[in-house]
Specification:
The chain is an all-beta fold. It has no helices and 25 strands. The strands form five sheets. Strands 1-4-7-10-13-16-19-21-22 form a nine-stranded mixed sheet, with no helix packed on it. A six-stranded parallel sheet has the order 3-6-9-12-15-18, with no helix packed on it. The protein is globular and about 55 Å long.
Length: 194
């Protein structure tokens, strides 16, 4: 693990793979089968289970547990104390075998706000933005801005993270970076080529 910073209070089990430039902060625990990319930040008290994949450039804030069955693509942001699940109907008296964990995929560039919950078995789309405290129970389209309990799409987000303002023709230009988009369907936002 050359080029990796691990705080003395953190535990990284033998067999975990962590890419160069990554940082594992106070009281974090990375299990043996985890695969973590380059330039990843794991905040205080983060837990990463066996067979979890975290892509390059992800930022995992404090108090996040990433359970078996979760995959994060590149540059995903997980806000403080957000929650992933991996069992649809948990019962303490009837433990779920690992092969029945429901997988969750968070695509490149998505952001998940503080205290949000991602129920297992879904995909969060590329560059989607999940508001703080939202409870996501179904697949999220690319660029969707999701809020509420259960979460509903309330708008669209640019790749840079700014909220888009759609015009009457279903088009938007980002006020921050200038990227242009058009709504191709009720849950389909397409980027217009420059």
């Amino acid at each position: 693990m050359s080029g990796v910073f691990v705080h003395p209070s953190a535990v990284v089990d033998d067999g975990a793979r962590i890419g160069a430039g990554s940082k594992v902060w106070h009281f974090a625990h990375v299990m043996a089968g985890a695969c973590i990319g380059r330039d990843v930040s794991l905040g205080q008290n983060v837990f990463v289970a066996d067979d979890v994949t975290i892509g390059d450039g992800c930022k995992i804030q404090n108090n996040v547990s990433i359970y078996q069955g979760v995959t994060l693509e590149e540059h995903v942001f997980c806000g403080p104390s957000m929650v992933f699940t991996n069992v649809r109907n948990p019962r303490a008296a009837f433990p779920t075998p690992e092969e029945r964990y429901a997988g969750t995929l968070v695509r490149r560039g998505a952001s998940i706000g503080a205290n949000a919950t991602i129920v297992c078995g879904i995909t969060v789309g590329t560059d989607a933005f999940i508001a703080a405290g939202a409870v996501v129970t179904r697949d999220v389209p690319d660029h969707a801005l999701m809020a509420g309990v259960p979460a509903r799409r309330i708008g669209w987000a640019c790749t840079c993270g700014r909220i888009l303002r759609m015009d009457d023709q279903g088009r938007a230009a980002c006020a921050e970076c200038g990227r242009r988009y058009r709504q191709a369907g009720p849950d389909d936002l397409q980027r217009d080529e420059p």
